[in-house]
Predict the structure.
Amino acid sequence: MPSVQRVQLDLPEQKVIELDGLMKETGVATRKDFFNQAISLLVWAIKERKKGRIIASVDEAKKDFSEVIMPVLDIRSR
C-alpha cells in the first residue's frame, strides 16, 4: 500500500463556500475526491502545455475558443 501523507489547507471562508458549491454542482462527495480531480486536470494541462499546446474552451457552434490563462500554465516563461 502506498504511503499516505496528510495535507492541511487554511482557506478563507469565501473559498470554502466556493469549494463546497463546486462540489455540490459537480456531485463530488468529498473534498479529497474534489482535490484529486482538480490535480488530475492540472497535471494533464501542464503536460499539454509542455507539448506546446494551448489549453482552451471551445465553442464549436461559433468556431471560437478562449484560452485558459493561469500563471501555472505559462510554461514558456520557465
Summary: The CA atoms of residues 30 and 75 lie 31 Å apart. Residues 13-77 form one domain.
